[in-house]
Specification:
By secondary structure, this protein is an all-alpha fold. The protein has nine helices and no strands. The protein is globular, with a radius of gyration of 17 Å.
Length: 185
Amino acid sequence: MTGDCRTWRSALLARVIAEIESEIRQAWERFAVGLDVEPDSSEAVELAWLVADDPAAYDWRTVDGAIDRLSCPACGSRLTQGPAACETCEFHHRMRFGAREVDRRHVPPGNEHAVRVASAVARTRHRYSARARVGYELALPDLVAGDLPSTRQAQAGKALINKLTDDECDRVVSFAEVEQLARGR
């Protein structure tokens, strides 16, 4: 769910999600205006469907901006935000990952992919397990800051997270807390 609809696991995560959602809105608005389309018009809804149906042609923030403006014809929820059982929402959620990713300047290669995946997990958290959510949500602020964990670091973090219960995964607010809970298990 989006930042304005839920309580996030930390104030830091809430700020980062708000920043990402602002970037997504701005990307959509720039895209629509660049095509002489008013971003909130009925014409923009048609444009948003074109983008959602062909994500590989667009930057991921533009695709997510398009998705955010659409209602699912199957379940009536905002597209990708419907119940996990909604096949249309699930289809478009998976399709979003076909969008282009261009790494920002001064970040390691692959950072943009990590930001995109982590933000998608955080914004559609009901589609993911408690273990996936905690890992991506705790990493997201560092990813947005330009960091990228090594494979070894990511695997070590995952090993610690796998020692937690689902309830613990949903409650922790930092990797330090994950380490503390996992110690000795």
